[in-house]
Design brief:
The chain has 218 residues and is an alpha/beta fold. The chain contains eight helices and four strands, in the order E-H-H-E-H-E-E-H-H-H-H-H. The longest helix has 15 residues.
Length: 218
């Protein structure tokens, strides 16, 4: 998988993501869609802790960096899309941003305000539904694929028998990794599966995300 360039100096255009799965999936999508390398994605594993709470905690400090010109943020909606948006809203207001919409933007939000970095927000999977990165990735499974039906059947059976080890809120993660385990090259990470065209569907959701990136960092 191609890696986006890194530098010892802070990049004036950055994209913050929650964890390493996000890092690899978005890097693979950027490679697939030939997104110009005008920005970097700082590796989440270089932070002390990963996840949305750690990212939001750092956000005000990052936005005050003098060299920063553009900042994109990709986080999961999880169980409450509006609560996630409000949490980001509160952090941005604390730095001085105003005119922030009360609800999410279906095509991703991009905003410019004088004397502050240009900001962009994408909430997985599509700024409109609860869910996470794996929900976004599930849309990349080919429409005519039959294994996804079987994977869902098996997971439903496990839950009926009450022998599922995963929490129901993480069912989509169990589904994606079950599906990936049954491919020609079993168990590929999500990012690798995009690069190798195992995940090869090209739905509107992927194109909308890429358009958001291109508009944010143009």
């Amino acid at each position: 998988m191609a890696k986006r360039k890194t530098s010892r100096q802070p990049n004036p255009q950055q994209l913050l993501v929650e964890g390493m799965n996000d890092f690899h999936v978005i890097s693979a999508l950027c490679e697939k869609y030939n997104v110009p390398e005008t920005f970097c994605i700082p590796r989440p594993d270089k932070r002390k802790t990963q996840g949305v709470e750690a990212l939001l905690l750092e956000l005000p400090t990052i936005l005050k960096e003098k060299r920063l010109k553009t900042l994109g943020i990709v986080v999961d909606a999880d169980q409450d899309l509006q609560a996630r948006w409000q949490a980001i809203n509160n952090k941005l207001k604390s730095v001085g941003y105003d005119n922030i919409p009360k609800t999410t933007c279906p095509k991703g939000w991009i905003y410019e305000q004088k004397e502050l970095p240009k900001i962009g927000i994408w909430i997985m999977p599509n700024n409109q539904l609860t869910g996470k990165l794996e929900d976004f990735v599930s849309y990349l499974i080919p429409d005519d694929d039959q294994l996804q039906l079987k994977a869902n059947e098996i997971l439903n059976e496990l839950e009926t028998l009450k022998i599922n080890g995963y929490n129901k809120k993480d069912k989509i993660k169990a589904f994606i990794h079950t599906w990936l385990a049954w491919q020609k090259k079993p168990g590929q990470p999500m990012g690798t599966a995009i690069t190798t065209n195992t995940l090869k569907n090209n739905p509107a959701i992927a194109e909308t995300f890429i358009n958001w990136l291109n508009q944010l960092y143009k």
